[in-house]
Write a structure and sequence with these properties.
Belongs to the ATP-dependent AMP-binding enzyme family. The protein is α/β, with parallel strands linked by helices. The protein has 20 helices and 30 strands. The structure holds adenosine-5'-monophosphate-propyl ester.
Length: 644
């Protein structure tokens, strides 16, 4: 039996839904999705109201997903203009700089003006509806402004996390054929400068854009190329702040976000306008039990989907005050998160288990120094939260009075799919609990047979929800193959899960070749292809292995070319190489020289075995009889890397 934490009655009293209401709404949402979403779709403004609600097919021959398809709207209008009359002077974004002495409050009126100016500046440089605009930005207000400016004119943004390398940025510029790049001179994180424009210059050597707009953040010395590069401050100073929001179809693309899969290069996940915004705003309100006047803080980076849906679009659509943090949890001290909570009286705090684990390691004192009295709801996202971290978050940070919403979702899902609701759901540490409205999870065995009751299996979703991705940008076939062909007719998440006797879901992690490092998603194939691109490497295999802080770390097996000798210097060089090829988040944690890799007679690497060896679990290597050369395994076990 797992621990159960019943709903806090004080929270329940004020909450949007209690358990009875959850059950009733959930039932309606799956029995009659047209009626349910037809009603809740009205939570955003429509220029032309929809008459059709759901038109979706998961049929493997013809996957087609449309929501509210004959309605027209605009995301920036919903996040800005519609609030001006009622809350123009309310703070929309609290920006907290890397340096604690720097912060800024931006009202809805200010934000609206700044978005309109940038939108006009982009239009003046030829960016129009449907064009792709890549953002490579630090966590500064201009990142949100740029997203909303794109949305306002119907341009499609594609954000590339500022930690990615020039090569990774170049691939993503090319992947969507970007017309414009918006970046900053340098970023600032933990007191250190990040050379964003220099990286962008290197990327634009490989894939050039028409216009590069550069925000002045640090004033550092950078190059500006005549005719292409312009300062954000200059182009926005000169423009009008009158820029009507484009009337866009509900299914007009809003953004592309590249994410890793089990094979090949990252794919461009495409989200569209109407359904995405309805889902992001509704989940933001219900999952965090957001109420008028709450100060809400999600610590993610806008380079990831969490930043899109739960720093910018969901909260702003709801007229919330959303906090945007430029820095890191341990700068200038390990109390920083808690100091920011006190400084801005944060009520709702949403972070990742990896941050919780690293702060937990510092003990209770850095937290107890702060009052944290404003906190009401805590959230977790990105990877399974281990019970030890859950308990610390609950007792030390939340003082036992703040429900923890452990939210399971993915870049592809656009918003949260499995989660507790603060006033409705009894909590079990480590469980994402129950599905959100409209979400129908199913566990299936490896043959795709649905499993009933308390069981464990592969997690699928059997019907569409409005926030779902619509396609892989420019490659609908890949979309179908990746998500709808393993178990035909169902969306396969790539995750495994257990369902307990109360119908609660416990996500057990990826069952494919995707690993989750500090909540960042990484394809083992990407790291492998970076390694084999090194002239001394013949072959490489990459697997995930348990890591105390990161959840999973990157364990690498490398076979060198016949004339190369392993050495510590070469090891360091290869780690550096991967950081250079992809970015620091892909840094291998352990590297093992392996003269041979376990392969089947047909030459396929048996990753199952490599995973077990990396996990120190060689008691259960399973069937090794199909190996071409079983002695390889003994050699690998003998030379395994010590992970402690
Ligand atoms: O394995 C699941 C894990 O993160 C994956 C999705 O990663 P990404 O697309 O980068 O989105 C992360 C933020 C939504 C999932 O397939 N994951 C995410 N949230 C949880 C989780 N695993 C367990 N519990 C969660 N709450």
């Amino acid at each position: 039996m797992s621990d159960i934490y019943p709903v806090n009655p004080e929270i329940a009293q004020k909450a949007h839904v209690d358990n009875e209401k959850y059950l009733e709404m959930y039932k309606q949402s799956v029995e009659n999705p047209d009626a349910f979403w037809g009603e809740h779709g009205k939570r955003i403004d429509w220029f032309k109201p929809y008459t059709k609600v759901k038109n979706t097919s998961f049929d493997t021959h013809n996957v087609d997903i449309r929501w509210f398809e004959d309605g027209t709207t605009n995301v920036a209008h919903n996040c800005l203009d519609r609030h001006l009359e009622t809350r123009g002077d309310q703070v929309a974004i609290i920006w907290e700089g890397d340096d604690p002495s720097e912060s800024e409050n931006i009202t809805y009126k200010d934000l609206h003006e700044r978005v309109c100016k940038l939108a006009n500046a982009m239009k003046a440089r030829g960016v129009t509806k449907g064009d792709r605009v890549t953002l490579y930005m630090p966590m500064i207000p201009e990142a949100a402004i740029a997203m909303l400016a794109c949305a306002r004119i119907g341009a499609i943004h594609s954000i590339v996390f500022g930690g990615f390398s020039p090569d990774a940025l170049a691939d993503r510029l090319r992947g969507c054929d970007a017309k414009c790049l918006i970046t900053a001179d340098e970023g600032l994180r933990g007191g250190r400068k990040v050379p964003l424009k220099a990286n962008a210059d290197a990327a634009m050597e490989k894939f050039d854009v028409e216009t590069c707009i550069v925000v002045k953040r640090t004033g550092g010395n950078i190059n500006m190329k005549d005719g292409r590069d312009v300062w954000y401050e200059d182009v926005t100073a000169a423009t009008s702040s009158d820029c009507p929001a484009e009337e866009l179809d509900a299914e007009h693309p809003l953004f592309i976000l590249y994410t890793s899969g089990s094979t090949g290069q990252p794919k461009g996940v495409l989200h569209t306008t109407g359904g995405y915004l309805v889902y992001a705003s509704m989940t933001h309100e219900y999952v965090f039990d957001y109420h008028e006047g709450d100060v809400y803080w999600c610590t993610a980076d806008v380079g990831w989907v969490t930043g899109h849906s739960y720093i910018v679009y969901g909260p702003l659509a709801n007229g919330a005050t959303t906090l945007m943090f430029e820095g890191v949890p341990n700068y200038p001290s390990v109390s920083r998160f808690w100091e920011v909570c006190d400084k801005h009286k944060v009520n709702i705090f949403y972070t990742a288990p990896t941050a919780i684990r690293s702060l937990m390691r510092e003990g209770d004192e850095p937290v107890k120094k702060c009052s944290l009295d404003s906190l009401r709801i805590l959230g977790s996202v990105g990877e399974p939260i281990n019970p030890e971290a859950w308990n610390w978050y609950n007792t030390v940070v939340g003082k036992g009075k703040c429900p923890i919403v452990d939210t399971w979702w993915q870049t592809e899902t656009g918003g949260i799919l499995i989660t507790p609701l603060p006033g409705a759901t009894d909590l079990k540490p480590g469980s994402a609990t129950r599905p959100f409205f409209g979400v129908q999870p199913e566990l299936v065995d490896n043959e795709g047979n649905p499993l009933d009751g308390a069981t464990e299996g592969n997690l699928c979703i059997v019907d569409s929800w409005p926030g779902q991705m619509r396609t892989c940008y420019g490659d609908h076939e890949r979309f179908i193959q990746t998500y709808f062909s393993t178990y035909p007719g169902k969306y396969f998440t790539g995750d495994g899960a257990r369902r307990d006797e109360d119908g609660y879901y416990w996500i057990t992690g990826r069952v494919d070749d995707v690993i989750n490092v500090s909540g960042h998603r990484m394809g083992t194939a990407e790291v492998e292809s970076a390694l084999v691109a090194h002239p001394k490497v013949a072959e490489a295999a990459v697997v995930g292995a348990p890591h105390d802080l990161k959840g999973q770390g990157i364990y690498v097996y490398v076979t060198l070319n016949a004339d190369e000798e392993p050495s510590d210097e070469l090891k360091t060089e290869l780690v550096k190489w991967v950081r250079h090829e992809i970015g620091p988040i892909a840094s291998p944690d352990w590297l093992q020289w392996s003269p041979g890799l376990p392969k089947t007679r047909s030459g396929k690497i048996m990753r199952r075995i490599l995973r077990k060896i990396a996990e120190d679990d060689f008691g259960s290597l399973g069937d090794t009889s199909t190996l071409a050369d079983p002695s390889v395994v003994d050699e690998l076990i003998e030379n395994r890397q010590n992970r402690s």
